[in-house]
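Running this now, will post back.
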Amino acid sequence: MRVALGDCNMKFKPIITTGAEPINKVAGQLVVDIVDKSIFVDIDKSISENCNEERIRVGMALNVDDQIESINSRLVDLKEKMNFSLEEVNTGKRWIDGSYIYRKTIIHTGNLNSGGTTTTILDTTTNLFGVSDIKFVGAVSAVFYNLLEAGATVTPLTAIIEPNMNVRVFVANPNLSDTGDWYITFEYIKVPRLNDLSWNRIRQISEAGTARLYWDVDDKKTVTLSDNSILEFRIIGFNHDSLASDDNIRAGITFATTRLMPTTRNMNPTNTAIGGWRDSEMRTWLQKDVFSMLPLDLQSEIKPVQKISRFATSGLVFNASAIVNDTLFLFAEIEIVATGAIEGGQYEYWRRVGGEIYTSRIMTPINSAAPTWWWLRTSRQIPMSSSFRNVGTSGRLGDNAANMNLGICFGFCI
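Update: finished.
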């Protein structure tokens, strides 16, 4: 039996409960709930037989504000015991790449149905945390806390994070059915924006193997060269290129320029492709001159990787290949369009944008809006051992004599 009480005097001493602990009712005791400053009381049958509802309604005196303060105090204690914090807390723990792990609790009010049902919290991470750049790590924990039901306990729930970042809360207790609050505690790391990080930190994340968890292909970072040219680089692949130091280990991230360099250049000063990319003047220029134009903090983090170069050794016979170790490199035909000489594999970026679709390959220099021809490192197969493959102004593939000046899109690995 539940009745509302006004100001009154009674011989029965009430027991105030927040629902945080079980209450054993006995004759001569009342259980009082306080909700929005309204007082309710659960009365044991043995008590109700000896009490008149009207006498109860007018016969008890309670200070409502004092009781609410008591309940709030118990809530604070509960939150501390269960690591509840509605504010962001730095746990002091670090994730595998050195990022700090943060913890925060959100409250979701709603109905928990009995019978082991599942409820999805539809809030996005932006709504929950005020930022979208986070990644959940570890397990998410949840409890149900009910202020309305006398005798209820804090009920642990099972919660998982779905791929769409929604949280599904599993109600394991078939007898629990009421309206209350879910306290859901997340541990997470803040996703650093690529362009805000030093190359040293990017290298640390790359080596830890967590780069893909933070970033995606086509995420970008700008670099200022020593001649004050500003180049923008995009991520084109993860774990794609084998390190020069160990072909069993892949570089974590591969970058490529989003636009062509401001000046054009030939592959060789004379019209020959003998020796292919391996022996080209372009390769030497990139490794020395262009590399030295990069910021020192980037130079120190670039990892040399293995690149395959197929070429003719003499005349018209396309009969040799070599593995070269490069800090900076041009891209092979197969790395963009997935066809051509076996000089690697297609990068994820080009696979996503449709490298086989010629318009996706159109590029412009950083100092012009006009599409420009640009070099690939793949040398032309027989019968033209004086040419290298290239991408035209329409994006279509073609061949040009090695001594022609074309645009330059290059890459590197971290």
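The first strand starts at residue 2 and ends at 4. More later if anyone needs it.
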